[in-house]
Design a protein that fits this description.
Pfam families: T3SS_needle_E. InterPro entries: T3SS_PscE/YscE (IPR012671). This protein has one domain. It is 81% helix and 0% strand. The chain contains 3 helices and no strands. It is elongated and about 45 Å long. 3% of the residues are buried.
């Protein structure tokens, strides 16, 4: 089991979960800002993949 999984399972108040989701959301906003500025095709592809990964992370953390 990963350390993050253990912390999420042992967080009955949900404070760690909230902290992680805030970090993901903050990072997601930064990535979206970069995408919205306009990027070269390869950079757009990379940043879009990064955004998808962050969104997937949010979905996983929300399950705890």
């Amino acid at each position: 089991m990963l350390e993050i999984e253990e912390k999420l399972k042992n967080d009955p108040a949900g404070s760690y979960k909230k902290e992680i989701l805030e970090q993901f959301n903050s990072f997601s906003m930064e990535v979206r800002k970069e995408i919205n500025k306009g990027l070269a095709p390869e950079e757009f592809k990379r940043m879009s993949g990064l955004l998808q990964a962050v969104e997937a992370g949010v979905k996983v953390v929300e399950q705890y």
